[in-house]
Amino acid sequence: MDTDSDATPPTTTEARLALIDSVLALPYPAGEESEDDGVHSSGPGHHLLILQVSQDFWDDRSPELVEPAEQEIEDEFSVLANALSGRWGEPETVDLWPYLEGDEDGVRAAVPEPMGQLCNLAGSMQVWRVPGGTRWLGLAVGQADREFPIWLMAAVGETSILPG
User: Fold this and answer.
1) pLDDT by residue (tens digit) across 10-38?
2) How far apart are CA 68 and CA 66, in angstroms?
3) Which pLDDT score, from 0 to 100, does residue 37 have?
4) Number of C-alpha atoms within 13 angstroms, CB side, residue 69?
5) What sign does the CA torsion over 18, 22, 25, 30 have?
6) What span, in angstroms and rounded, lies between the C-alpha atoms of 77 and 15?
7) DSSP per-residue letters across 28-48
8) DSSP class of residue 159?
9) At 101, which helix (H) or strand (E)?
10) Is 24 exposed, middle or buried (0-12, 13-18, 19+ CB in 10 A)?
């Protein structure tokens, strides 16, 4: 995913849910792919979507600008999480920080996608195991760095890469 993308994610909750549904039905590609719109990337065993993006904060990181942006993203996260919980029950929280850690020598093991991308943007995600298959859907809020936009993201992956 490109942190400098000018892509336009969906603008309504209904459109975000429709995008999630369409990606849940897609097969995984054999190699890494990124759509031209910059909102969707995929690879073996995963899809990653940007559902909502705040403005960037290069020129101004004041609380008057950042806090409303954070709140808008968090509000939509809650709306989507409630809708998904209505479908599949309560989510589990997956901590993404361990994917950043290395061994005692500081060597980081290969991290399966989409965890590799997500752990660089968010500290945790809410995960629903999609009934009737081997896929999970995760929602996370993340930011590449303080100056970058805040992202609401959805990820789809194989349940075999989830902890426990």
Assistant:
1) 899 999 999 999 999 999 999 888 765 66
2) 6
3) 62
4) 23
5) negative
6) 14
7) PPSS-EE-TTSSEEEETTEEE
8) G
9) none
10) middle
Range list of β-strands (E), the chain: 33-34, 40-43, 46-53, 92-95, 124-129, 135-143, 150-158
Which residues, including other chains, have CB under 8 Å from residue 74's CB and lie 6 or more apart? Answer: 141
Neighbours of 86 (CB within 10 A): 8
Residue 104 has pLDDT above 80, yes or no: no
- For residue 143, which of 8, 52, 34 has the smallest C-alpha distance? 52
Predicted structure pTM score: 0.89
Token pair, residue 52, equals 């909502």
Are 52 and 152 in contact by the 8 Å Cβ rule? The answer is: yes
Helix (H, G, I), strand (E, B) or coil at 90: coil
- Phi then psi dihedrals of residue 50, to 5 deg: -100, 115
Residues 163/138, Cβ–Cβ less than 8 Å:
no
